[in-house]
Amino acid sequence: MMLLECFMFGAIIFLMTGAQCEDIEIFANEGSVAVLPCTHKPWSSFPPAIIWSKVNKGTVWRKERSGLQYWGASWSQKGSQGSRIQCPHSQYEKGAYNLEISQVTEEDGGFYSCRLEFGAQFTESLVYLRIIKVTVSPPVPIWGRDVSVTCNVSPWPHGASVQWILNNSPFVPQTEIFANTDEAKSVVKEKATAKLSGNWTCVVSFKGKEARASATVSVKGIIQPSDDNTKVYAAVGSAVTLPCVFSNDLAPSSAVWEKLKPGSHFNPAPGRLPPSFSPSLSYSQYPWDRSGSLMEVRLEDEGRYRCSGIVEEQKLTRTMQLIVARIDRNMSKKQGSVTLKCQLSDTSDITDYEWLRVTYDLNGTKSVESIQKGKTLTISGVSEENQGEWLCLFYGKEGILGNVTHHVQLMSGLSGRKSSGSSHNTAAVVGLSFLLLVLLMILAQMYKNHQRRKRIFQYPALETIVHTISNEREERERTRVKK
């Protein structure tokens, strides 16, 4: 219909004046400044009269040769600080009489006419302004609900091709488009997920020209982790946080954590949470943070976990997998070595292992040395030089996934020098123990004699008798010797 109006309008101009109707296509983003071109080489040194009008809408802006300017009734009242319309006079000398419309809206789309009057002569040209924009419905979609992204062009250019770009990559809709029309392709309808978040750009190609409009889509829900079945790695005995963070302006109700029993991934049955599991204590201050934590990870804690919460009467859930890492130790007394093996409950995403040795000097300064690659490490001849912390790093396609630490300590029998030193120490301890025992026996005998004499001295008469008997015994012995 609009094309017919242009044809009729141009035909009337051509028949009445002999002037040509030049049709120019212009695209402008909604809210931007649209520049409608109107150029012509001046026919005299005097500026022409300029008349800009919109087809079927009347005059937009007009300037007489005297310099007086007039705005159409529907344009002069737009905004408290004046009209949205201007025609910069600084370009007149170059033969440019462009019309500038600021803050364009869908209603501004349509045919515009530029008429230049040079005395008795005049020329006229047509400009077709199309307003393009991208709309999102609902403006802030909730995870799991329907969302539509629409490319609006007013008026719509029949025969145009439409392409969608999401975060600088071409987007192919998952839902099937039944109507194979241009306008049908301009609408994308999907279930809201994190993959739809980002910058959407609509690219419209028409008559060799390309127009673009963009909008940002922000899907609200559980933003961390962003995908189901996210893997979390933790070492045995360590603490780990299982993230469950909603958009920061959401306050989910009925937040629940569950450990899922092994089995089907489609409808797994909830099991019992580990004894060391506890919900996040920060939800009172940050109601969108419903993370959980394990204070001390055990081997049996590995498996799948699920957190959930109610947002706007819709249940949002996220599943994640806890993968437990440990180091197995195997001692060989014959060879005097220790073998360390890095073990994980799930190695499907592991691409490589690396062993590091961590040491500390007398000042407590930490140093890290890379030893070797591989899952297994053999330490030959365990001694003071290689005792301490040994760290196993495990990698995935995107880099380091986690680590687990083992402490190597000296054991008697693994090092000949250490064993010899231990035997000398044992002999010394035995000798000192024997001397201490003899000393204790002597002290005990002296204490007994002292106690006996002490008891005797308590009775003087008994002391006299004992003394007399002792003297008589000595006298008899002397007499026997003389004979």
UniProtKB/TrEMBL annotation:
A GO biological process held by the record: T cell activation
Gene Ontology molecular functions: MHC class II protein binding; protein tyrosine kinase binding
Keywords tagged on the record: Membrane, Signal, Transmembrane, Transmembrane helix
UniProt-listed SUPFAM superfamilies: Immunoglobulin
One family name in Pfam for this protein: V-set
GO cellular component, one term: external side of plasma membrane
InterPro entries tied to this protein: Ig-like_dom, Ig-like_dom_sf, Ig-like_fold, Ig_sub, Ig_V-set
N-terminal signal peptide: 1-21
Entry protein name: Lymphocyte activation gene 3 protein
Organism: Channa argus
